[in-house]
Specification:
Layout (H helix, E strand, L loop, with lengths): L3 E9 L2 E8 L7 E10 L2 H8 L3 H5 L11 E9 L11 E4 L2 E2 L5 H4 L10 E2 L13 E5 L3 E3 L6 H4 L2 H14 L6 E5 L3 H12 L3 E5 L5 H5 L5 E2 L9 E6 L6 H8 E9 L11 H7 L2 E4 L7 H10 L8 E5 L4 H5 L10 E4 L4
Parallel strand pairs: 10-11, 10-13, 11-12, 13-14, 14-15, 16-17
Antiparallel strand pairs: 1-2, 3-4, 3-8, 3-17, 4-5, 5-9, 6-7
GO molecular function, one term: zinc ion binding
Pfam family, one: ADH_N
Family: Belongs to the zinc-containing alcohol dehydrogenase family.
């Protein structure tokens, strides 16, 4: 196996290139994965523009290697790792807690104060590369029915599944998702699988959500006056958190999974006077296994969300806003192209 590999390297806002870098080695407790697919996420775009808060908080720094939505095959294992992982198709958790702090011990390692995040935080190189090194404990095996495309959609799917679960709706309930991007549409799919009547609200053309079977897709101006038992904010708009509370039924639930680039105002009196439950969702970590199962059984099929698959050389253009392929919101990278 070659001692070097190709990787996408971000050296500053808008500054990037595909470079030949040292290939990762399987140190104790870790594995090396040959990356088959990696997704480009809104978080990656924030690093590309320089707006990502971690850059200003000291959690991340250029140069960095992005990519936290991935699937691949284990090609090497380090000391102390079960050799049965070799040759297995896997995806991995993005959030790597220290496994010793109080939060980790309570099962909340995705909130660990000293965590690394693959391709995001703490200098842990990401998956926009031919190979990737991660702790063996962070791996999730993929069944044969979950190929690389689905595998690279497990991480965002875990976030969406948790948002749908937090909405706590089912048969006879009505849910509204604000923002029909990747996370919003995945959340809508999980809500639909739970039996809820699902509505979406966005801006511009809503033809793509409708093509996925979501006939109830609206703009703010056309949104019907209906009682929504839950509202999920999957946007990046500063005004959406308060709008979610305005639109939800009294005694309903609002779920926040979108992040604005600036502080969002929310009058907590509205929460109290409407007896609303508000939930924030940070990570897909606790929902990865269940997401894999949903994909494997066909309960949720996110394939149509992938508009195109391109090579490492096209990542910069994608992060800069260039669109290619179909109407879906997600671009996948094949690092070996």
């Amino acid at each position: 196996m070659s001692s070097t590999m190709r990787a996408f390297v971000l050296t500053g806002p808008g500054e990037c290139s595909v470079q030949e870098v040292p290939a990762p080695r399987a140190v104790a407790g870790e594995v090396v994965v040959d990356v088959e697919r990696a997704g480009v996420c809104g978080t990656d775009v924030e690093f590309f523009t320089g707006a990502m808060a971690y850059l200003h908080q000291g959690h991340s720094a250029y140069p960095m290697r992005l990519g936290h939505e991935w699937a691949g095959t284990v090609t090497a294992v380090g000391e102390g790792v079960d050799p049965a992982w070799l040759g297995r198709r896997v995806m991995g958790d993005t959030m790597l807690g220290d496994r010793t702090c109080r939060r980790c011990r309570r099962g909340h390692q995705h909130t660990c104060e000293s965590r690394q995040e693959v391709g995001i935080r703490g200098g842990r190189a990401g998956a926009l590369a031919e190979r990737l090194a991660v702790p063996a404990w962070s791996l999730h095996a993929l069944p044969s029915s979950v190929d690389a495309v689905l595998g690279a959609l497990v991480e965002p799917g875990g976030n969406a599944l948790r948002a749908a679960r937090a909405a706590d709706v089912g048969e006879g309930d009505r849910a509204l998702v604000l923002g029909p991007g990747t996370i919003g549409l995945l959340t809508a799919m999980f809500l639909r699988a739970a039996g809820a009547e699902v509505h979406l609200m966005g801006v511009g053309s809503l033809d793509f959500p409708r093509s996925l079977g979501f006939a109830n897709a609206w703009t703010r101006e056309t949104l019907p006056s209906l009682p929504f038992d839950a509202v999920v904010d999957a946007t990046g708009a500063a005004g959406s958190p308060s709008l979610a509370v305005e639109l939800v039924e009294p005694a309903g639930r609002v779920v926040y999974i979108g992040l604005s680039g600036q502080p969002s105002g929310l009058d907590t009196r509205s929460l109290v006077l409407k007896d609303v439950t508000a939930v924030g969702v940070l990570s897909g970590s606790p929902g990865l296994a269940e997401t894999i199962e949903a994909y494997a059984t066909g309960a949720v099929d996110p394939r149509p969300l992938v508009a195109a698959t391109v090579g490492l050389g096209e990542v910069g253009a994608v992060l800069g806003g260039e669109r290619t392929g179909g109407a879906g919101p997600k671009i996948h990278i094949d690092p070996h192209r």
